[in-house]
Amino acid sequence: MRRMQRIATEDQAASWGHWGHQPNKYMTWDQHSNRLVPVYTFGIMLDQLRAEGSAYRDPTRLKKIYGKVPKGTLDPSALYFDQTDIYRLQQAAIDAGYTNIILIIFDGMDWQTTRAASLYKQNRYESGRGTGLSFQDDRRVETDYGLICTSPKSAILKFDTNAQTVLDWAGEPTGGYDPSRGGEAPWQEQSKRKYLLGEDREQPHTVTDSAASATSMMSGYKTYNAAINVLVDGRQVVPIGRSLQAEDGFKVGLVTSVPVTHATPACAYANNVTRKDYQDIGRDLIGLPSSAHRNTPLQGVDVLLGGGWGEKKGTDTAQGDNFVPGNPYLHEEDIRRVDIQNGGKYVVAQRTPGKAGKSLLMASAMKAIDEDHRLLGFFGTKGGHLPFQTADGKYNPTIDNKDAKEEYTPADIAENPTLAEMTRAALLVLEQAVDGFWLLVEAGDVDWANHANNVDNAIGSVFSGDEAFRVVMDWVDENDAWAYTAVIVTADHGHYLVIEDADRFVEAGKQAEMGQKQQTPVPEVITP
């Protein structure tokens, strides 16, 4: 797979697939798309949503979601749900007595990216749920599958980061989904059209970003791109995890393979008019005064594990006047303030030279458990993320649309825990909760791989997230907790990988498997 990616990038053409709507060019699109994305559930079914019927069949419900009935969006035969239904599904679980809610988001993992990873594991399918990955195949508990629409209410609006106000909402939503252009299902799309890219002149429905989509899933409202639980009129809304913490005594945990204050984990707890105000978002996450909560800080999450460590920045106008030079994601002084060593609430584990990341994190988790503290884990390599896993299970990315390929030292690998290891540590702390917990696990590197037009990294990141999923499922089994645990797996949006020759992915997977068995280099798959 690595060599397929390298040769396609060098030649800017590949018979097996491409990024974008032009088959003769390998890379023409590196942004999000309006593709319908999958949702998989475990321990809870989609029956209630199906009984209600898709909101896209009902003009009254569509108007409530978008503010109007978007052009081309009403579909009497729609079977797909809306992204706000992910919030409603979680709330339904709580109403039914569930006390453990685990939301696993593969950022940017559309049906096509999932299929690429499954094909590499030599599982062929042309439609539906598919097979080959753990979250496709796991049947230890009742499970369900559906599709969701991700379009936001509006494109990005003007805002004042310092004042935390939205400035230019004109009352005209721009989101929507036209199945005649986008398809009733991902396997029915017209991949040569530009509609799903938001560039159809007749029907330019806005494509979501990760902030608007996560707000939909966490708080149940569609909003503008870049908003962290802030609506188009400037009102703050409370995400479900924070509500459960405040009202029902739940513990809240956030785990991600990318910076801890990026859009998806941010929307699990914080408020901000812009996703780029990372330091203030971080203050919300760890219970310090922020630009959005100046006088009454939020409680802070109970577990925060992810990337961002080691990054430095001197200025950042996007973060407002209160930006402090230093780490742009979670400032060193803020970490110091919340550390139990300084009277704070968190056992802090940071990447440390010469220390194994897994061991360091687990020791900190046990300390947090033994002494009844919270847990903060801050890791990463250059760029703020965990090392990117490739399809072969290694950490050896090849070239893509970025200026330089990612390269890691042995220390980068050893000193960082994996997403699965962070997930295990989070569960150990959260299982101490008396009243229940809400946990977000984000495989954020799927999105980074797709933005880079790197299919090798994309497949590897799906496998990495799939391993974290197995940790979650095993934990529920070990604790005999299926009677009160709901696990939801989904994506926040799609990208635009188009697979033209599925056999090439299957053959690449076969050759990789053969090479691993023989412990010899994998033969090159040559692009004609």
List the helices and strands and how they pair.
Layout (H helix, E strand, L loop, with lengths): L1 H10 L5 E3 L17 E6 L4 H6 L6 H8 L14 E2 L1 H12 L4 E7 L4 H10 L13 H4 L5 E7 L9 E2 L4 E2 L12 H4 L27 H10 L20 H9 L2 E9 L3 H5 L10 H8 L17 E5 L24 H7 L7 E5 L6 H15 L2 E5 L31 H5 L4 H12 L6 E7 L1 H7 L3 H24 L6 E6 L6 E3 L2 H17 L10
Parallel strand pairs: 3-5, 4-12, 4-13, 8-9, 8-12, 9-11, 10-11
Antiparallel strand pairs: 1-14, 2-5, 2-13, 6-7
Helix pairs in contact: 4-8, 5-17, 5-18, 13-15, 15-17, 16-17
Q: Measure the end-to-end span.
A: 15 Å
User: What is the number of domains?
Assistant: 1
Radius of gyration, Cα only, in angstroms? Answer: 22 Å
Instruction: Give the tally of β-strands.
Output: 14
Secondary structure tally, helices: 18
Query: Which structural class matches the secondary elements?
Result: alpha/beta
> What is the CATH C level class, in words?
Alpha Beta
Bin the strand percentage. 5-15%
Strand order of the largest sheet: 3-5-2-13-4-12-8-9-11-10
Major sheet size, sense and barrel closure: 10 strands, mixed
Helical percentage: 25-40%
Point out poorly predicted stretches: 521-528
Under the CATH scheme, the architecture is 3-Layer(aba) Sandwich
Overall pLDDT confidence: 97
Task: Tell the overall outline.
Answer: globular
CATH fold topology: Alkaline Phosphatase, subunit A
